[in-house]
Amino acid sequence: MKKTVNFDDPETYHLYFGNEDGTPGTIITFFPWSGSYKGRIGDGQVGVTTYVVPEGAFRFWENRFSALGIDWVRTDRFGEQYLRFEDPHGLKLEFVEREEGKMNTWEFGGVSKTEAIKGFGGAVLFSSNPQQTAALLENIMGFERIDEDGDLIRFKSPGEIGNTIDLKSTRGIRGLMGIGTVHHIAWRAVDDRDQLDWKRHLDANGFRATPVQDRNYFNAIYFREDGEILFEIATDPPGFAIDEPHDRMGERLMLPQQYEKHRAELEESLDPIEVKELDI
């Protein structure tokens, strides 16, 4: 875990969760706005976030979820089985077993490396304009359209994790941002030069990407595609270990330079966070 603050709202945490090295392709972030309103998952959002686990890990996770009172269901699409569940706020998540992806070597709380999450598998996108989103993925971003299953279209890009996108080809209810929804989906750029190449490419094709935003651990640009989903393109470097060692990540609140002078006030106002082992 990486514990810092929202650059635009420093009295709110920006929490990064990933593997032991904070490797790109494993990172999900949360902004815990206490007392905020409940969102609604729908068009213009990531509908489901997919994680990859090792082959044969489903039985472990089914037993673990059942022991913790988490409802789960197995689903099937494109010849793969998925273990779908929700977090306490209604965020839709799922696991898929795949051989691809580096094994996670960190073991904690009864989860061994033979069951631990490897990283993202991809996502299911809910678009308010599915045809335009499909055209963007295939013609602008270079994904390969490989199959259809019911009202889902599957796209893949090179890579071992996070490279499979399922796009819902039918429209539904419009999404509303709030608790239990995904704010944006991020794509990787190799470095700053690659990111600027992407910005020029997007601008040339009618997508207005933001100026580069310095996020300390990566640089980011953002654009909203024609299906109203917010896309980010983030650089791999410099990474999450630039200001604290790997084995101490998440223990201390890390602040960008502009907020360091306010450390005492921020540490006083932010709710304390404890990572604890579950009693199962």
Give structural notes:
The chain has one domain (2-269): 2,3-Dihydroxybiphenyl 1,2-Dioxygenase, domain 1, CATH 3.10.180. Helix content is 15%, strand content 33%. It contains four helices and 15 strands. The chain has helices at 58-67, 130-140, 192-204, 263-269, and strands spanning 2-6, 9-17, 28-30, 45-53, 72-77, 80-86, 92-97, 119-126, 144-149, 152-156, 164-168, 185-189, 213-214, 218-224, 230-238. A hairpin with a 3-residue loop joins strand 13 (213-214) and strand 14. The longest helix is centred in the C-terminal third of the chain and has 13 residues, at 192-204. The protein is globular. The two termini are 22 Å apart. The mean pLDDT is 95.
Give structural attributes.
15 strands; 4-stranded mixed beta sheet; 280 residues; 2,3-Dihydroxybiphenyl 1,2-Dioxygenase, domain 1; 8-stranded mixed beta sheet
In short:
With 280 residues, this protein is of the alpha+beta class.
How many beta-strand runs?
A: 15
Most strands sheet: 8 strands, mixed
Helix content: 10-25%
At the third CATH level, what is the topology name?
A: 2,3-Dihydroxybiphenyl 1,2-Dioxygenase, domain 1
Architecture (CATH level 2) name: Roll
Count of runs of 4 or more consecutive helical residues? 4
| Domain tally | 1
Protein name: Glyoxalase family protein
InterPro entries: Extradiol_RC_dioxygenase, Glyas_Bleomycin-R_OHBP_Dase, Glyas_Fos-R_dOase_dom, VOC_core
